[in-house]
Amino acid sequence: MWTLECDGPYLANKRIWLRPGKKYLFGRTEKETRSRTSCNFIVMIISVSRQHLIISVSAVKPGSGASVHTRSEITLEDAKTKFGTVIDGQRVASGATTALKNDEHTYKLGNTPHTFQWQPVVLSVSFSSKDSKAGNDPLAALRNRLEDTDIKVINNYVIGSTTHVVQGKRNTAKGLQALINGKYIVTDSFVDALIYATTPGDLDAEESLSPLEEDFVGNWPDAMQHVPPRGKEPNERPVERFAPDPERVNVFEGYTIVFCDKGQFDTLQSPITNGGGKALYFQPKYGHTTTDELVGFVKNVAGEKGLGELEDGSEGKGVVVVKFRGNSKDDFDWAVQLGTEASLALDLRFIEQNEFMDAILMNDASVLRRPLETEENNGASVPSKPIMSLLTCT
To answer: For the segment 148-174, what is each residue's pLDDT rounded down to a tens digit?
Structure first.
């Protein structure tokens, strides 16, 4: 989405959205006019011509709503002024038209700087497996509603492009990636607010503008008002914790997560590596893998030899274990037993999969790794929580 702002009063000291398919005339015109296709802005400066320059934003090309690397084209035309126009410090000849290619450009009307800025909005939307199996693109209807505004709607999370993850839950792989990369997690209600903000207030009035065309900053929906509700996370955190934080980008740096469940590995590999960590998969043979094999694998990844407790005391950066369970009751019982024995041998508390989000929110992965907690049970020390699948430091 292209926006325009200036240091003077000519846009009412506001940043405005430049709607695709529209033209904007700046000059000492007789009156300010606006419609769905054009706007005239009065600039009462003696060095500014009656018709000084025209900004044109092209309509969005069909299909561009699914492409994060496309955007509407924007040009600035000097309307045959006496002195020409200065763009990015360079004077453009009178009557010349300049295509603006970068994310930000500055031009001057008189001595007043005006700034164009490209504001990417890419929604990575989650949908159910039922919707994806229906044969149709489950995002097509939403994309059709937003495409002509230059807002992108995709399914995958794209690092460096996604700005908002749209989903009903907080704790998902896409949500974890958004938190790590300093992006927002929002519900469908945020999309509804976007549609409202880009729609003219009175569809029957030709001169009616959308809220974002009036004031982009003041009318942009507050993503923090649309954070998904709490799910089964182990700790309740205030909504403010879900605000973007660029410091989280290396939250898993120094850790290597080893999973014994292929589904967990496939789901969480991306957010872990995105957060500067590594992810490995150890494939157990249900009913056959021994405790020594699991312990030996963890010790080897941690750079240690032999069996027994971890030499670093199971604190700080190092091995962490994430639970794995089987697909049947027999597999589950065997997995719990294997995890109990391995955690005792390593003196390591294994974690639940849903604990990753809290570590990201607090920007502290060390909470995932602690010595085994024990409790007295008829005189015998046992793990307070049996568990299974792993995380280790490099």
So the answer is: 999 999 999 999 999 999 999 999 999
pLDDT in tens, 289-315: 999 999 999 999 888 888 878 877 666
Query: Helices (H) and strands (E) in the chain — how many of each?
Result: 10, 22
Here the tokens at position 143 are 């994309």
Map tokens 């005792």 to a residue.
344
C-beta pairs of 219-227 under 8 Å, 24+ apart in sequence: 221/190, 221/193, 221/194, 221/197, 223/164, 223/184, 223/186, 223/190, 224/184, 226/186, 226/187, 226/189, 226/190, 226/193, 227/170, 227/185, 227/186, 227/187
Question: Using an 8 Å Cβ cutoff, are 42 and 10 in contact?
Answer: yes
Which amino acid makes up residue 133? K
| pTM confidence score | 0.85
* Rounded (5°) CA angle 113-115-121: 165
Rounded to whole angstroms, the Cα distance separating 15 from 3 reads: 7
- Does residue 5 contact residue 72 with C-beta atoms inside 8 Å? no
